[in-house]
């Protein structure tokens, strides 16, 4: 079976999170999953066991004192070293800001083809075929690469699949200081506030608010409905620009792409750049007081009305039904 | 200080963007605009020019129509523009685009390169880092804020796990996010002056890039059926109840 490298980013507390698990599951469809990790110290037994449960057949661990201070270079170096040793047919990273840049730099080093924002992966006639959803989900494209491994960044929340639980063989080695200069990371300046709500990218339900919410205070209504539905909170760019919510909540062309079971758009006009990030949702509900708002063109259920009237009633209904 | 801005022409996101289903390439027949994020990249450079002495050069690789985005940038205040134009560049993937742009940057020389973090058509979001890798330079990318110093550049890097303060020694490559200020508007005087500014066209042969056009092959490209509008009701006081019923019957609550 061909080797597949997977760059694993440990979450805080060194746990192997759902995104890392999904990448390993994707790798298992193509060949033997090899987890590649870079840390500044030894790997805990708990981490290794978790990687095994997620299906990593092998763990390549690189120790670099620079992992948090030299922007991305240690990860690129580690993957390049692992690739030289394992001749992988594919290398997978998460489709995050870091993941895409690591993949891009690795593609340059290995002179290999790169496909970003992959939503599905399969093996066909000995090569890896990647599916992407482009131009705002209006097209589905299947591609492969030639003349080298596939370097792919995988959209979070898009892959799953059976894995074989293993007791991975672990190889740890020190990573030499890189010859390539890096930007220096001084420190984390702002971390997203921990929340009990599901994560936007992978949530089964999303409630988003737009400029129609009118203020930061009144945007709380979006959060209340989200909590009643057990949903994540999203927003339009206008709501983010107005400061109602942090940027991390932005859904759309230049924000997060979501594909939930249920998407509720409150006070959002449905500009094409917003629709781009949510139109593959299974069911779309919109509440907007303008009957001509374009969001209604794609809504399965539309209410022409005032969010400040309809949403409190809806929350009451949902809570009454629950009792 | 010599600053090169990487700008790009893209299909207007407000228009109907199409993909050629045979080649998997983006159809460039519709309305074309300057990619908004590259306009903001240009603004960062022009602000620096306003504040201190800086030469601002625009660089784009693209079909003949791309000259429009260069003209616009010259009208906004850039000093010079370089257009890499070659039929053989059609269908270039990220690997090749990064090789061509890196070769052009090497030829031009610079203290700082400013790109957008992600284009609205390709959405690769990796080009600046790829160019940095090719040139052996640091990349300070995905910056929400940019502070340019005499020999370094610093800023706040966006990220799913939180933002980070980063800095790099010059020469370096940066990319900026849409959190940076919008571009200024061209003035009449600026547009008149732009006509006299140098705009060079460079062919691929002058850059000596050997990469094949693309290492990625499209196997299939299918258009998703458009979503149809469903039920739409006007709120007469019962809409919340009807919506709750819809959610219940769809097993969503
Ligand atoms: C290159 C580019 C990238 C972009 N990327 C994104 C992106 O990633 N995400 C994104 O969202 N946008 C993006 N945009 C912006 C996009 O074009 C729109 O400007 C934006 O989505 C509008 O947000 P909105 O719907 O909240 O605001 P508006 O368009 O102002 O709509 C507000 C809506 O609220 C309704 N409303 C007002 N009050 C009430 C009330 N009391 N009850 C019910 N309804 C009410 C109004 O009828 C209106 O329809 C991008 C634009 C460009 C050019
Ligand atoms: N053909 C091009 N010519 C000039 N700059 C480009 C080109 N393609 C991409 N860029 C730059 O690279 C950035 C990121 O693009 P991408 O990696 O394609 O998302 C853009 O915002 C531009 O600054």
Q: Residue-averaged pLDDT of chain A, rounded?
A: 94
Task: Tell me the major beta sheet of chain B.
Answer: 9 strands, mixed
- How far apart the termini of chain B lie comes to 59 Å
Radius of gyration of chain B: 22 Å
**Considering the protein shown, what is the CATH homologous superfamily of the largest domain in chain A?**
HUPs
| Global geometry of chain B | globular
Strand content of chain B: 25-35%
Please tally the helical runs of chain B, counting DSSP H or I stretches of 4 or more residues.
6
CATH topology of the largest domain in chain A: Rossmann fold
CATH topology of chain B: Rossmann fold
Oligomer: heterodimer
Low-confidence sequence ranges of chain B: none
Straight-line distance between termini of chain A: 54 Å
**What is the CATH C-level name of the largest domain in chain A?**
Alpha Beta
By CATH reckoning, the class of chain B would read Alpha Beta
Secondary structure category of chain A? alpha/beta
Number of strands of chain A: 15
Major sheet strand order of chain B: 9-8-7-10-6-1-4-5-11
Q: What's the structural domain tally of chain A? A: 2
Order of helices and strands of chain A: EHEHEHEHEEEEEEEHEHEHEEH
Please name the CATH architecture of the largest domain in chain A.
3-Layer(aba) Sandwich
């Amino acid at each position: 079976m061909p080797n597949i490298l997977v760059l694993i980013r440990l979450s805080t507390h060194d746990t192997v999170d759902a995104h890392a698990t999904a990448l390993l599951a994707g790798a298992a469809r193509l060949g033997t999953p090899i987890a590649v990790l870079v840390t500044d110290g030894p790997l805990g037994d708990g981490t290794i066991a978790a990687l095994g449960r997620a299906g990593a057949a092998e763990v390549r661990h690189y120790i670099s004192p620079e992992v948090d201070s030299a922007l991305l270079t240690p990860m690129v170096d580690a993957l390049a070293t692992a690739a030289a040793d394992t001749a992988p047919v594919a290398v997978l990273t998460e489709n995050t800001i870091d993941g895409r840049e690591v993949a891009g730099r690795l593609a340059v080093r290995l002179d290999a083809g790169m496909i970003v924002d992959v939503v599905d992966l399969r093996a066909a006639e000995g090569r890896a075929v990647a599916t992407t959803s482009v131009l705002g989900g209006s097209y589905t494209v299947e591609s492969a690469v030639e003349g080298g491994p596939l370097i792919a960044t995988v959209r979070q929340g898009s892959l799953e699949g059976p894995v074989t639980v293993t007791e991975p063989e672990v190889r740890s080695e020190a990573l030499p200081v890189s010859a390539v200069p890096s930007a220096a990371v001084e420190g984390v300046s702002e971390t997203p506030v921990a929340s009990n709500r599901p994560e936007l990218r992978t949530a089964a339900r999303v409630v988003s608010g737009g400029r129609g919410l009118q203020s930061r205070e009144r945007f709380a209504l979006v959060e209340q409905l989200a909590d009643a539905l057990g949903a994540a909170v999203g927003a339009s760019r206008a709501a983010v620009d107005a400061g109602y919510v942090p940027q991390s909540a932005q859904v759309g062309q230049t924000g997060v792409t979501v594909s939930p079971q249920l998407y509720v758009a409150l006070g959002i006009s449905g500009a094409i750049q917003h629709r781009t990030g949510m139109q593959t949702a299974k069911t779309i509900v919109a509440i907007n007081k303008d009957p001509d708002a374009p969001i209604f063109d794609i809504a399965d259920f539309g209410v022409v009305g005032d969010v400040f009237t309809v949403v409190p009633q809806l929350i009451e209904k949902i809570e009454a039904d629950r009792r | 200080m010599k600053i090169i801005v990487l700008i790009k022409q893209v299909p207007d996101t407000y228009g109907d963007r199409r993909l050629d289903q045979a080649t998997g390439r983006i159809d460039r027949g519709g309305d074309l605009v300057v990619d908004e994020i590259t306009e903001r990249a240009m603004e960062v450079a022009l602000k620096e020019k306003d504040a201190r002495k800086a030469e601002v050069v625009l660089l784009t690789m693209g079909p003949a129509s791309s000259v429009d985005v260069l003209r616009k940038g010259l009208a906004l205040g850039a000093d010079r523009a370089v257009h890499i134009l070659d039929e053989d560049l059609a269908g270039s993937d990220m690997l090749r685009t990064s090789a061509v742009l890196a070769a052009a940057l090497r030829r031009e020389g610079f203290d700082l390169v400013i790109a957008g973090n992600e284009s609205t058509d390709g959405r690769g979001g990796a080009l600046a880092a790829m160019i940095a890798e090719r040139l052996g330079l640091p990349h300070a990318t995905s910056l929400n804020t940019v502070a340019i110093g005499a020999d370094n550049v610093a800023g706040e890097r966006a990220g799913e796990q939180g933002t980070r303060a980063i800095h790099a020694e010059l020469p370096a490559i940066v990319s900026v996010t849409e959190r940076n200020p919008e571009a200024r508007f061209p003035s009449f005087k600026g547009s008149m002056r732009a006509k006299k500014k140098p705009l060079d066209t460079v062919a691929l042969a002058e850059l000596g890039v050997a990469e094949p056009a693309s290492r990625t092959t499209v196997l299939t490209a299918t258009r998703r059926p458009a979503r149809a509008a469903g039920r739409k009701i006007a709120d007469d006081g019962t809409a919340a109840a009807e919506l709750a019923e819809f959610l219940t019957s769809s097993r969503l609550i």
